[in-house]
């Protein structure tokens, strides 16, 4: 590690850092967002790289390089106190490139120095690891109603965590963790050379040189804070080794856990007795004095196992000086424990979705705008919860109902829902709008947790769940078990789905059973179809391989299998070396599970096969529509037209069961097409012709009153014809005198006759109907 961290920084590292930055991040005192550097990199590359490498490799710090603006973001509505603002640091982008280069070099080594009880910012670890562990331990506490041992869970809140970090403490921690002195020197230069100015109402005030703290907004700060909190983990770990603070094990054989940390969120688990609580207080006090971190006891709380006597709970809570609660409501934004009503448990998600929808004025959004809002905001809200919990189907239906109402309705006024929501959740290439089917998405996210348990068996959450629910079996053979937690029941519900997409990649063949395991490249079962005539249950695939040449043993294959199986087995490539067998995800190109591929598999399993809009011959049409370079609302209109869900008279009649609705354009019994669009296109061509001919006085007559209303009115219009109407008005402004007139078809028989004649034409025509002369003569006579 030390040798790698001391290597000189390169131009490639700097380039990688800048192009991994979000383009529209708020700029600092330089006033230049990252997109400026992306766009003009070829021009400024040499100067920028030279400046940054001089800083990283030679510690040359240009004037103003580390200046930082502080802006105050309100934490609540109508803030009146300074504590109700969150200070955000806006650094110069050039400095952030340097800082991000250091962070990128540091990240690969975090897994080596950060203990398993921390999950924040460490590559390969997820926030959901801590959520699952905390939920499992809280479930253990809640279900422990008997026994002489009592346990407690402390949820601690660290006040102003980043702002209170002492710089000498950070420097000593980096040294204790084994980082080289030159790398520590560079980090401390980044931390200590900062100068702050405050931005209020767009004006920059003052210049402050701090003596402690890390900046929120510096790419390096999260990793430095993680390294600082590792010292707290070390204190608890040493106490656990000495059996001073034993920790909590959810079952016999499970690892004991005394603490979980994620950024500034801390949970402590220990037996509930005064001696151990005093040791916890001592550790927190040592950490406070060394690091500067303060525990916010007002926001901290204690929860005890159900078998703990009431007076013991009160005494220990008072000893710590924190609140006593029956349960922790949330941990890392998700429920920390579950009780009877799962629907009530996640009711806050529905409230958040409703508030987001109400926060937008639906009247100002077209259907295309609403679709974007649903995909990027509304359907993202429950995703975090769905990665750990199987949400009730009735709640998912309510989420979908809110989205459907928002999409189709006009504000608070209900409108016709022209198509079922499930059909809108299909792929755009299959006639849908690509909205997420939340039930399928929930299943795919839970399957990801199972995949992590299989592929990362040494991580802490895998060891705990295996010890609790399947200590002597493979995960695919695990059962729900007795008194399971809600998280485990949620995860195990995706087991059969995950199994349906997994198969074994043959290496040595020693781990794969010929008859029971999925290893044949044939969907959907991936299993042998030949009957086990010899009744050899424990035959392994290694018995089918000639170990000397690493080839399939054709004689054995001919003896045991039907031709269909033999052909597929011989297509499986064998490595020249005896590698371990590997379980792979069949539906991705690299064999690694992905939520995207799992979602599409789940969606195909849930969708009825072969509707008329999923045909292969329509796939090219859908592709052309969605890739066409036109406004999104035009694409949505085209989608509705092909789906036949435009608000035409015939469709309204079917939906609302009206008796008579005719088309005003062609007098047919039903209005079956976009008549106003046809009228708008005709008017556009007429006005184009008049402009080309340089006409000075123009009268345009039409019988479509709705189109004329749009031309005459100046009110906001988000309909599909609004771009055409705007174009008509623009062209009309180029003519000296132009007037649009409403004339019934009976008053313009010639135009009506030409329109009816053109409907039946397959191409262009210069021949006019013979009766046109008679109509013209009659009109001139009148």
From TrEMBL:
Pfam families: RVT_1 (PF00078), RVT_3 (PF13456). Signal peptide: none annotated. GO terms for molecular function: nucleic acid binding; RNA-DNA hybrid ribonuclease activity. Residues 54-324 form the Reverse transcriptase domain. SUPFAM superfamilies: DNA/RNA polymerases, Ribonuclease H-like. This is LINE-1 retrotransposable element O protein.
């Amino acid at each position: 590690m030390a040798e790698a961290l001391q290597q000189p920084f390169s131009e490639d590292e700097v380039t990688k850092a800048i192009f991994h930055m979000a383009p529209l991040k708020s700029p600092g005192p330089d006033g230049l967002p990252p997109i400026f550097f992306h766009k003009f990199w070829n021009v400024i590359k040499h100067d920028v790289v030279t400046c940054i490498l001089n800083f990283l490799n030679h510690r040359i710090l240009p004037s103003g390089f580390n200046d930082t603006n502080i802006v105050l973001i309100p934490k609540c509505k109508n803030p009146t106190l300074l504590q109700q603002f969150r200070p955000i640091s806006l650094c110069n982008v050039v400095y952030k490139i340097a800082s991000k280069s250091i962070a990128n070099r540091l990240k690969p080594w975090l897994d080596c120095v950060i203990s398993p009880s921390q999950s924040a910012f460490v590559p390969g670890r997820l926030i959901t690891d801590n959520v699952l562990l905390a939920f499992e331990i809280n479930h253990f506490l809640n279900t422990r109603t008997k026994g002489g041992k009592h346990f407690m869970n402390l949820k601690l809140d660290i006040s102003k965590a980043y702002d209170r970090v002492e710089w000498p403490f950070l420097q000593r921690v980096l040294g204790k963790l084994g980082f080289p002195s030159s790398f520590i020197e560079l980090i401390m230069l980044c931390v200590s050379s900062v100068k702050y100015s405050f931005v209020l109402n767009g004006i920059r005030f003052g210049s402050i040189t701090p003596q402690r703290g890390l900046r929120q907004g510096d790419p390096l700060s999260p990793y430095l804070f993680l390294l600082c909190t590792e010292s707290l983990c070390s204190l608890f770990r040493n106490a656990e080794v000495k059996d001073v603070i034993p920790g909590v094990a959810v079952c016999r054989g499970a690892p004991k856990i005394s603490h979980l940390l994620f950024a500034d969120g801390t949970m402590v688990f220990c037996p509930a007795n005064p001696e151990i609580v005093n040791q916890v207080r001592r550790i927190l006090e040592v950490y406070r004095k060394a690091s500067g971190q303060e525990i916010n006891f007002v926001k901290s709380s204690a929860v005890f196992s159900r078998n703990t006597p009431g007076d013991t709970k009160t005494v220990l809570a008072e000893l710590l000086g924190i609140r006593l609660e029956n349960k922790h409501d949330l941990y890392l934004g998700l429920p920390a424990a579950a009780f009877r009503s799962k629907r009530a448990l996640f009711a806050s998600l529905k409230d958040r979705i409703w508030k987001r929808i109400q926060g937008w004025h639906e009247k100002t959004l077209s259907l295309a705008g609403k679709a974007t809002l649903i995909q990027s905001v509304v359907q993202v809200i429950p995703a975090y919860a769905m990665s750990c919990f199987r949400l009730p189907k009735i709640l998912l239906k309510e989420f979908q109902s809110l989205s459907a109402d928002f999409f189709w309705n006009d504000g608070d006024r209900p409108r016709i829902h022209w198509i079922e929501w499930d059909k809108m959740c299909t792929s755009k290439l299959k006639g849908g709008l690509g909205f997420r089917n939340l039930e399928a998405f929930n299943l795919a996210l839970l399957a990801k947790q199972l995949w992590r348990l299989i592929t990362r068996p040494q991580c802490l959450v895998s060891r705990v769940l295996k010890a609790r629910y399947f200590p002597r079996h493979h995960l695919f053979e695990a059962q729900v078990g007795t008194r399971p937690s809600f998280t485990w029941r949620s995860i195990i519900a995706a087991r059969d789905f995950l199994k349906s997409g997994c198969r074994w990649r043959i290496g040595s063949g020693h781990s794969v059973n010929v008859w029971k395991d999925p290893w044949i490249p044939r969907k959907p079962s991936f299993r042998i179809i030949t009957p086990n005539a010899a009744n050899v249950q424990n035959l392994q695939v290694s018995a089918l391989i000639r170990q000397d040449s690493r080839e399939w043993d054709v004689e054995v294959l001919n003896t045991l299998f039907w031709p269909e199986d033999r052909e597929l087995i011989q297509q499986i490539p064998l490595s020249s070396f005896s590698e371990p067998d590997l379980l792979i995800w069949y539906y991705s190109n690299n064999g690694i599970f992905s939520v995207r591929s799992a979602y599409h598999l789940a969606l195909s399993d849930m969708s009825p096969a072969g509707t008329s809009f999923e045909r292969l011959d329509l796939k090219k049409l859908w592709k052309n529509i969605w890739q066409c370079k036109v406004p999104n609302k035009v694409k949505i209109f085209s989608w509705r037209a092909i789906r036949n869900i435009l608000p035409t008279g015939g469709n309204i009649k079917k939906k609302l069961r009206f008796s008579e609705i005719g088309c005003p354009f062609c007098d047919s019994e039903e209005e079956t097409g976009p008549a106003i669009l046809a009228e708008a296109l005709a008017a556009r061509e007429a006005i184009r012709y008049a402009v080309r001919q340089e006409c000075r006085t123009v009268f345009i007559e039409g019988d479509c009153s709705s189109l004329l209303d749009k031309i005459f009115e100046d009110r906001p219009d988000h309909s599909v014809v609004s771009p055409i109407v705007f174009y008509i008005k623009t062209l009309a402004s180029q003519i000296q005198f132009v007037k649009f007139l409403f004339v019934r078809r009976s008053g313009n028989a010639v135009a009506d006759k030409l329109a009816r004649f053109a409907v039946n034409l397959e191409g262009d025509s210069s021949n006019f109907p013979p009766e046109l002369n008679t109509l013209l003569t009659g009109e001139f006579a009148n």
